Structures
1.
Amino acid sequence: MKSKSIPSIRSRLAGLVAVCLIPAVLLAAVLFYYDYQRGRERLVQDLLTTARVLVLAVDREFEGVERSLRALSTSPSLAQQDLRAFHAQATEVLADHYVNNFVLIDAGGQQLLNTAGVFGQALPKTANLAQLERVLSSGRTDISNLFFGPLLGRFVINVALPVRVGAGTGLTHSLVGVLLPAHFQKILQAQGLPPDRIAVIADASAKVVGRTHEIERFVGKSVAPGLVERLKERNQGAFELVTLEGIPALVVYARSAKSGWSVAIATPIESLTADLWRSLWLLAGFAALLLAGSLGLAWVLGGRIAWAIHALRSAAEKLGYGQAVVLPALPIREVDEVARAISKASAVLAQSGQALSASEARMRGILESAMDAIITVDADQRIVLYNRAAERIFGWPLEQVLGKRLEMLIPERFRTAHAEHVGRFSALGTTSRSMGGGTLIYGQRASGDEFPIEAAISQLDTAEGKVFSVILRDVTARVRAHEALERSNLDLQQFAYIASHDLKTPLRSIGGFVQILEKNYADKLDDKALSLIHRTAAAVKRLEQLTEDLLSYARVNSEVRPFVPVHCAEMLDEVLQLLDAAIVGRGARVSCGELPEIIGDRTQLVQLFLNLIGNGIKYCADRAPVVHVSARRTEHAWEFSVTDNGIGIDARHHEKIFEVFTRLHTQQAYSGTGIGLAICRRVVQRHGGRIWLTSTLGEGSTFCFTLPDTFPESRPA
Ligand code: ADP
């Protein structure tokens, strides 16, 4: 089953690639930008140096002109006012100088001499009267801004020096060296700047004098507006502006404090950032390539992983359906390890499956051969398992009971009780218990007949819910046998009772007749006949005793009286009274400890104590009998003991003497019927206790018995 909402391993891997690559690319971009900024700063510094060098070069040009002017001003021909000679001298100087022409101007502004023309030619007044005034009034060299020289008909720059002409003392004239912008153009070109750099030399009024690009178009015009402002503010700097051609550029400028002239070098932003953009595009291309490559790799790798995992999935499904799984070696170690584990699990399962089916077969064999019915029901009490013995016992074939409720096997009158019992058992959570709790329970056969059963129930929590298993046995035969036995026992008891009861009267008559015979005919009979009569009388007496004892024995179970509280000390007094003759006759001593009040059949308890104390007195050879009765409390009962100092009983007879008619001595040694202790055991058992003895031959015996301190739960009838 494919879940759309869960991302596939391929998309996860692609995400991972992107997450790893994107920050690296961004970092590279940032580094490139940082590098660009550093490069830009370096460029600014370099260009600033170049601009300063150029400004110095411009200043040096003016200084050179000034030096030439000063040299000419000292010319003797000037002092002698020999202007022709001065013209010739000045023209000579021009030959190896970059000054275009020299002009001599008087205080009124009239050009007296101009090397641009021939000597003696009519000359106009100077076009730059302002400079003349400045020079004469200050007495110092003056450098003009660029202006249009009418004589030359072009833009010129004048460097003027006040000079003395003739013998006078005052500086009355101005000697001017005229420079052409082309000269400054050369200075710029000599710098050899890269072709995209636009370098400008501007005069003190920020007019273009020299320019690497389009000088004809811009000469004499103001430099770019932004630069004009900057030049006023600072002597050097760098900023961005739009050049006169309209190109956005980074401008670096330097201004001479001396001449006020300045040099600016503009680098188009485009060429400045071109490198950055190239790097960034390269980076983008490289990143895209890398991304595509990595994604491709992730796709292939993801595919392999997905394939391996799909192989695992189908293997797991096969395993789930119990099919054998053999996986090939898979290309990823971890997945391969899981595959091996699955293969191993499959092998183990196959083995345990065989073992399971073998054990199932064994189990089935046991189920089918079991003598007892085994029935399993689910939580709804529907039959899910029903063995052959169940078929035999209930008479229903398997196919007719499977899936049916267990109730069909229970007589209707017990169904509610059964449901309650199962409910209680389920709630209790114990694993197993027997059913019925002491009373008989019944099943119902297909014929509708009820029959007694003995059953045990167990419960088990399984994946499908709780299941209950019942193992039950048809106990009809045993119950019948028990009932028959009980009936026969009862019959026997009744017979013994009736026989001993009915024997009493004829025995008494025989005893009476023998007495009469002895009394009336003693003198007529010989000794032998008399001896026979005596023996007959003794035998009758013994027979009477025997029937009396048998009657007592039978009565223990047949004469049922309600249990009542019995004060043992009082009861013992009564027993001692009954034994008075024997006690006195044997000189016996009977004592007792503290005795409790118990619950029981008083008459039978008298009989019990009577027999035990009586035996203690009787079975004492030649010493005065000493008997002690005591009681102690145990956990659930009172334990009584009757101790004597008599002849004792060998350990091998300790069990046997409680049986009817068991005697260890002859009538001559100790008279008796062998029923006394049998009566004792029956009485104790009827009270729910047990009887036993400890004894040492020749020293005495202790008979112990327990009597419960509460009403026994069930009393056998
Ligand atoms: P009976 O006394 O009538 O013979 P009992 O059933 O009372 O029958 O006793 C069975 C036998 O157990 C007696 O014959 C006697 O040998 C032996 N016996 C019973 N009580 C004692 C005792 N206190 N000391 C020694 N032997 C005893």
2.
Amino acid sequence: MPKAKITALGCYTPPRLLTNQDLEKMVDTNDQWIMERTGIHERHIADPEMATSDMAVEAAKCALAQNGVDASELNAILVCTVTPDHMFPSTVCLVQNRLGARGAWGFDLIAACSSFVYGLTVGAHLVTAGTHQKVLVIGADTMSRIIDYTDRATCILFGDGAGAMLLEPAAEGEDCGFIDFLGEVDGSGAPFLNMPAGGSRMPSSHETVDKRLHYVHQDGGQVFKYAVRKMYESCRDLLKRNGFTGEDVAVMIPHQANIRIINAAGDRLGIAPEKVVINIDRYGNTTAGTIPLATRDAILEGRLKKGDLVLFAAVGAGYTVGASLWRWAY
Ligand code: UT7
């Protein structure tokens, strides 16, 4: 069976910035509180005419251009998102059409902040099955569309962004690519982070809009405690069953929800701080976008090199948990 490797990466963030100083004018908050409690300084926000598929297409084009791959060569596209353009058709259909990816099938994957780690794993298995040569996994979220900018507990956290990774088979004997994945969902966490209205449980109505139920609602403390514990435990167990310790990890690329969650996980895993990628200060939490954006920054900063053991990790609404190990391929 061929191993799946990541061969290209592209990202997109909209140019407009929302800084902590901007938020100080919108809600009762301040830069010091936001920096100390979350590590976030600014986020990118999409202009009104831009939707999730638009950012996904930009990220996809960038990834394909890296190796001169034509969109018509793609066998499958996965769009990981909680902010699809519409409930249906799937965002992937809009992306496929805009890219001209005539040979691709695909689907949207909804697992909140763990979406991209899940998508990467599914994509890797399509390649490993031998049935797919080129799979594009996109993480894209326009969180600003579902955030209540009168709620200081959530509006400071999120930003918009997208990233895409291309998966292809590794050559025979090539020591790189996907190693292992550990996933978990725990639906008892559903009440603590969700968007109550707009689905079949509570269809949108004047009442749901008046009550602001079409926005993200979060019990931050509950999610925080769970995330700190599970990001550590999932990574610990994944490393252990593959015969590794934290010291073997060259680069940890965690979901960017809160700098304190990331530091706690890295610390408990015994991964040196300089090996843990943090860019939450510049992007906030872009949900499915965080891991490709952080990977891009690690490459640009020269921190991620061919042959490195890479650990991706995420915890999100659901609850969903995912961690995966890769040997970086380029
Ligand atoms: O990616 C999806 C998963 N999501 C997460 O992983 C997020 C997890 N949760 C968190 O990151 C943190 O819980 C938050 C950043 C959301 C909140 O930080 P916290 O340290 O847990 O603060 P808190 O909710 O316990 O609030 C502490 C105080 C409260 O005031 P009182 O009751 O002590 O008087 C809040 O009202 O801070 C207040 N507060 C704020 N103050 C200034 C809450 N939000 C703000 C704010 N500015 N934006």
3.
Amino acid sequence: MTTKEIISVEAEPYAFDFSPRTCALLLIDMQRDFLEPGGFGEMLGNDVSQLRRTIAPNKRLLTKWRLRAWPVIHTREGHRPDLSDLPPAKKIRGRSKTCIGDVGPMGRILVRGEAGHDIISELYPLPSEPVIDKPGKGAFFATDLHAILQNQGIKQLIVTGVTTEVCVNTTIREANDRGYDCLVPADCVGSYFPEFQKMGLEMIKAQGGIFGWVSDSEKILAALD
Ligand code: C5J
């Protein structure tokens, strides 16, 4: 494959054309506490199967990206163990009995280094793949993601992960304002709430793709083959 080769993926609102050398696969927050039975997400009463259906298509996409040696970046939402980067407003939001920093079913909730904060084994990062530890919902806020992308000449992102309406949408909006094109495979992003999944995707591709494009993993894989 030459660096000039362009791949065209069937997408909405129209085809997404990308050069593999300048396009990264960005996996958002595929963390144990959000996805695994017995984790913090389930403890709050959420149906984790709504997120777990994204694991297999993410795995297929990730495997293909790795085979081609194209850029892959992972993110994790979480805070320093001393919670010095946790805004008090975020800590108390939700008025839950158990909140960020407290001991949950898989260690301290959303704290770096704890079991639940780590990425699920199915999609575990390779040592060569950057992992962005982010204290906010967006992956660009208070991280070096933009610098890493700029240094690699990345202009386009295929964004997957959880949850669709929170960290995926926030990251796509941040990316959009920084000049990146984003494609979202619908089957590779998940929400605990089906209506938010639907609207989270609608909002991205509305108005001629105001924040980006929506497709699915099969269409991306078909374009690569
Ligand atoms: C993410 C959240 N990753 N829902 N976090 O979306 O709090």
4.
Amino acid sequence: MTFALHGIPVSKGIAIGKAVLISRAAIEVSHHLIDSGKEEAEAKKLLDAFDQVRLELDQLRQGLPKDAPPEMAAFLDVHGMILADPALAEKPIKLIRTQRLNAAWALTTELNDLLEQFAEIEDSYLKERANDIRQVAERVIKTLNAQQDSLTPSDFLPTSDIGVESIIVAHDIAPHDMLRFKEHAFTGFITDLGGKTSHTAIVARSMEIPAVVGVRHASEMIRHGDWLVLDGERGVVVVAPDEQLLAEYRELQTQILKEARKLQQLKHAKTETADRVEIELFANIELPEDAIQAVKLGAVGVGLFRSEFLFMDRKQALPDEEKQYQEYRRVVDLMHGLPVNIRTIDVGADKALGGGRDISQTGTSPLGLRAIRWSLTEPEVFLTQLRAILRASAHGQARIMIPMLAHAKEIDETLRLIEKAKQQLHQRGKAFNPNIQVGAMIEIPAAALVLPLFINRFDFLSIGTNDLIQYTLAIDRADHAVAHLYDPLHPAILNLLANIIDQAKRANVPVAVCGEMAGDSALTRLLLALGLTDFSMHFNQLLLVKREVLSANVGLLRARVPRVLRAYEPEEQAKALERLLS
Ligand code: PEP
Ligand code: MG
């Protein structure tokens, strides 16, 4: 039966393909059918993983200190009992033997069934046990994953479907997991959770893969192997589409492709407005090799290199100075002398630190130990990164950009550490640019309200509108429940932006916007009207934004903006914006 689900469109385009369901229990569960004849070996893998977890729990139990709270021992006993019950492995083994599911997939299927049964139980004590079962099963899944090699596309759909496009459906996907999927031939992403500027959405856009997030219950309503149409323009997912609908969407896909080809003609056009104001379009990148595309599409530099993506791989240790230097140098080399703003690590909130570090080190709250706050608590990690960036600056225009500053003392401590990193390199006889430019991101309202503090201390500023909006409007940008309140056009946001740009320009300090607003071509004219001349965005948005720039008249736009900024009432603002954009 055909039905449609709705969510938040976060990455444009149309995808048509079969659903690949990624389990809610653990994103890293690979789903594949094992070869016939290998069923017993797979069943043994599962039983071995159970044994290993049992051993780990026994060791934990024995190693408990004498003064450990009694609940701790009781908790380990309950987990031991769950593991000892042969029923937990029974059904998964049956699934391996009869349906040839891989071990982790089989166990997850059983876990989901059990959780559903527990959800119907009234007794609160028994209901609580669902969590114990989940924790035990996830521990076994982790053990299985540790034995598993990296995924290949054919892991996901049966071999009979090779060549068929596939669309990932998941409860949620972490940004670094999203990057892992880059190697696979997926044509779309659908998640139950997420918002427009969550980092997962940002990565989907950078991969140019259509995506819809915040599609509540998608991972429960869509089944593995269902045919799907994912409309990344309107935020619609059609499950089991009929022939007519498929034909309509295929036609739409063709049109989008044609449009994209037409845009390519703008690649070499000079970026200036109709009234000859020069505009600079920079690229945002997550991985060094993204710089290749950025240059091809005519970016005048990298406005934001989210360096934390080098630090988010759970399986690898945090990269050392040499490794980081190689990666930064690669971007600098690829950009052939153009500026590269290397943003220092911004982990925390929806970006978990890898290298085997525990999540408790940064926390998941967007108000917590994130970005520069975390770096300042780990001066050795921070100094290592600073030295690596400085060394890259010997080969081109590498610049340091600091995220999430708000306090004068944080700024001063940061600048002190940059000087210390320079001294350390000097002592080691390593080359670097002693006049390297250092910039600050303006993404906390407090920073925007005390801008002179930043203007006096930094060489350039870059406005992170994703966070500036999140913190000004007090909504978690990754939470779909408040996604409807995420509004870049809120008068408070527009006035803050106007003020930051105006103050920076007056002081002759370069200022850019590197949040998602800069890449939204529907907002290009508005940002030009606010006086912005430097835009940094995902490279795939570059030509769309350029098209807007070429036809805009900044003089006219600037004259009409005061009315927009004074309009607090929604109808009044809509009229003022309509006039501005007409
Ligand atoms: C921003 O906050 O706008 C920004 C560019 O940084 P990030 O999206 O990585 O938080
Ligand atoms: Mg930010």
